[in-house]
């Protein structure tokens, strides 16, 4: 066993994962020297990439036992490609596949059956919820799932730790030569940013589309130069499923109070000024923060530089009102985001690496003034858990959580002090997803705790009259109301390895009972 | 000595170049297995890329003796970056640099002095004219220049045959994080396509700009993820210099006749139909072909799919008239092209690899119905020379010539039968630039010759009443008028190696006397 920089005990070798590189600090591990060398491809004039159905794709490549198939998650809970591709694999009797899917949603429930039959025996993802997460927690796979961050997945692909044999890219629009975008077809999903590294580095790249346009398609998000095959199917997904999670501002008075306080923290930190940049999620409380920030920006008559991240209609409205000059979009969270990226030249589509990879010449999160994040649990060292629930079952994942936390100048976690009936502040989070050194402020309905690393910020918040408390005080308040949370009984088997964005291991997840 | 597939005698090893891979046919040499693995980079929040002047760039990298510095040529004869960077190198006493500049123009004359003083001792380019070409021909460099094609340069960078230490990218607009475009600054040059591979693969990437915008710049042509430094200088170039070469339709009646015939060849081949795609150069005769094709397209009321290549105002007008749906642009040939790419979403910027590399999953030239090309000489096997003049001195280079010839369905060379007072048809061209197997038709004022490989095309042209002759007949006509051209006396030293787009050697250029 090793103890990493946030005090987690990690085996030196995890079976099915390999030797562990221990987390040493948010910016402590330097990259290796070279990227992965992707395959060279070649094509002659007259070659056709159009294939007749997924089975023909499987035969032409050919897809074999043990390969790694990758997918992006821009359709979120409306995705139709993963299930169709894996059903094809099952039909053809292929076994032992690794699925590298950037996020897993309830719609991907058929994966559980593929686990059981051995069609799929390994999973690599940045987030998972629903039946697949539940089954993984219960130990359905012999091999631990690798849980990455959005930036870490791009890094792993580019640097060769995640080698992809075949990337299947759900393409809302494609031309016969393999140019792809996410905006011009009837099932538009907006940005295709998470699929960019897959397209660039996979040995074989397949555009799976339900909308073929004449050559040359424009705009081009993923170019013909990396796409080997184009296959048209009936339907690649349901764009309505993109809108999973809340996209309306909360009406809950406690959450509104938290959001209002978070906005005041941003103001007290002096960030409501020209050039302000901002990221927030799609949860009700996060959106409420955006709502209050919007009012502050209007009142102060300032113009922000950019909004970043998964993009909602709320941020689109702020762009259209001139409150931000640009949106940098790696993923649309609703159909307003899709509409905007299709038509507004100030709404930019970027790759997962551009968004958040730690190992390139500079990613967008590094330019962020402020990010608003959630938490399932947070500990007195400010380490955050967004992977496991109070029962130890996986119900999420970092996604861009640790990326944005590491990059932003001010990282605020907003959370109710009690989640259900349990305190969210612990001595030690069950699963560490984001290291405490990258979290600056916790905002709850009972007060605001500032990371001791940010003494000057604490002074600013106090000067602004904000209810600053020690995180231990908040913990005590919660425990007074709800008691100390009981330890969660877990099995000893490791069902998931939580990789930090730089590829070191932050934590492991053990089997839920 | 070896004899390659087009019958040229090539040494097995060229001193200063290395072992020669012999040209085996336009699509005969398969690629190697892997691309080059580019350097991994990393950046922390708060890191700044802005440096104060070129000398600081040199010190920070640091630039050392023997390194390869790369540049793109979108400013053509108005480029200001190459000379400033190399003057900096000279001032700092750096020696033995290799300059990888996609094309060399008369404005780059100071390079000759850097050759003489040993600051620069190697050159890698796709085209050169003016004093540098003259000096190279006379033997100023001990090491032969590598002459590539535009697609071949992308391939060489991506596949690791051309390793770049530092790419200096003339950036008409940049932001402090290194996002670059060619369209929003006062010295806009349009597409930056030739710089894309350099940005992707160079160990160090420097954006040299005279126009800094606030983060995030948009549109983004080259992303911050690969750019290490940003330096602001007084002036990166003079966009007026982009318009080098003719950009007006010829008034010469002989050239107009040739152009009219070439257009009729396209029509006879059945290509004036919906979906027609077309590339032509910026020479007076090429533009005249475009002029006649435009009239035909209007008359036939057809809509072409795309125009490709170096883009002129003439093609922009055809896009704006609806004669083409899209323009695919790797380089602007005039300021109308710059204006269009900045404002028209159907005018697409693409990389050199997308345009023409043979070793990716498919380049744009492969989709071309027809390309119009020039020639200094053509031989009875249809091999074309666009590298050396009748005195054996280098005055050009392939650029996209052999790429488009290989990709297009119909490749037409237009040329006056006499150039100056010399026949352009020879038994054997002095320097082979483009293999005859990729040339379909030669159009002269005395008749049209069809490559024997295209018997069906010959029938089509005859049926259309076009003046089809054997290429030998045309050669005889020319020689009757002007006599047989004398052999050019050359030295034995090899001053340049002509690489085909796949990296094999088509020919060598020997020292001019």
From TrEMBL, chains A, B:
GO terms for molecular function: citrate (pro-3S)-lyase activity; citrate CoA-transferase activity. Its EC number is 2.8.3.10, 4.1.3.6. Keywords: Cytoplasm, Lyase, Transferase. Its main location: cytoplasm. It comes from the Bacteria. Pfam families: CitF. One of its GO terms (cellular component) is ATP-independent citrate lyase complex. One of its GO terms (biological process) is acetyl-CoA metabolic process. It is found in: Cytoplasm. It catalyses: citrate + acetyl-CoA = (3S)-citryl-CoA + acetate; citrate = oxaloacetate + acetate. InterPro entries: Citrate_lyase_asu (IPR006472), NagB/RpiA_transferase-like (IPR037171). This is Citrate lyase alpha chain.
């Amino acid at each position: 066993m090793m103890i990493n920089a946030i005090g987690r005990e990690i085996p030196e070798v995890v079976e099915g994962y390999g030797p562990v590189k221990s987390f040493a600090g948010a910016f402590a591990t330097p990259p290796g020297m070279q990227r992965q060398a992707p395959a060279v491809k070649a094509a002659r004039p007259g070659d056709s990439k159009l294939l007749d159905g997924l089975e023909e794709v499987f035969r032409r490549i050919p897809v074999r036992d043990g390969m790694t198939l990758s997918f992006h998650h821009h359709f979120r809970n409306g995705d139709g490609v993963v299930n169709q591709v894996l059903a094809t694999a099952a039909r053809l009797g292929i076994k032992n596949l690794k699925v590298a899917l950037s996020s897993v949603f309830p719609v991907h429930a058929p994966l559980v059956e593929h686990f059981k039959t051995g069609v799929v025996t390994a999973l690599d993802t940045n987030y998972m919820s629903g039946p697949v997460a539940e089954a993984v927690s219960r130990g359905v796979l012999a091999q631990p799932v690798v849980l990455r961050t959005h930036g870490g997945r791009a890094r792993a692909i580019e640097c060769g730790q995640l080698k992809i044999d075949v990337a299947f890219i759900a393409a809302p629009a494609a031309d016969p030569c393999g140019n792809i975008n996410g905006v011009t077809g009837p099932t538009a999903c907006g940005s295709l940013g998470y699929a960019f590294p897959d397209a660039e580095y996979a040995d074989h790249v397949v555009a799976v589309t339900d909308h073929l346009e004449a050559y040359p398609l424009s705009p081009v998000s993923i170019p013909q130069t990396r796409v080997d095959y184009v296959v048209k199917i009936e339907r690649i997904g349901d764009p309505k499923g993109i809108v999973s999670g809340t996209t309306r501002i909360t009406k809950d008075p406690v959450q509104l109070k938290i959001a209002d306080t978070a906005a005041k923290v941003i103001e007290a930190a002096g960030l409501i000024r020209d050039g302000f940049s901002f990221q927030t999620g799609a949860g009700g409380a996060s959106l409420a923060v955006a709502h209050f920030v919007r009012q502050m920006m209007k009142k102060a008559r300032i113009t922000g530089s950019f909004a970043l991240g998964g993009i909602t209609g709320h941020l689109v409205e702020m762009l259209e009102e001139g409150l931000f000059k640009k949106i940098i979009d790696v993923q649309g969270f609703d159909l307003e985001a899709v509409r905007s990226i299709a038509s507004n030249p100030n709404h930019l589509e970027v790759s997962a690496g551009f968004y958040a990879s730690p190992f390139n010449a500079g990613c967008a999160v590094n330019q962020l003034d402020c990010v608003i994040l959630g938490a399932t649990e947070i500990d007195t060292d400010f380490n955050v858990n967004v992977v496991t629930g109070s029962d130890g079952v996986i119900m999420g994942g970092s996604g861009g959580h640790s990326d944005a936390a590491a990059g932003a100048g001010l990282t605020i976690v907003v959370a109710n002090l009690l989640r259900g009936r349990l305190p969210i502040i612990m001595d030690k989070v069950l699963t560490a997803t984001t290291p405490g050194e990258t979290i600056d402020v916790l905002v709850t309905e009972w007060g605001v705790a500032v990371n001791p690393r940010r003494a000057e910020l604490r002074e600013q918040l106090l000067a602004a009259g904000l209810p600053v408390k020690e995180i231990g005080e908040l913990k005590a308040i919660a425990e007074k109301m709800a008691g100390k949370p009981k330890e969660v009984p877990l099995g000893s088997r490791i069902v998931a390895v939580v990789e930090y964005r730089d590829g070191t291991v932050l934590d492991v997840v053990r089997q839920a009972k």
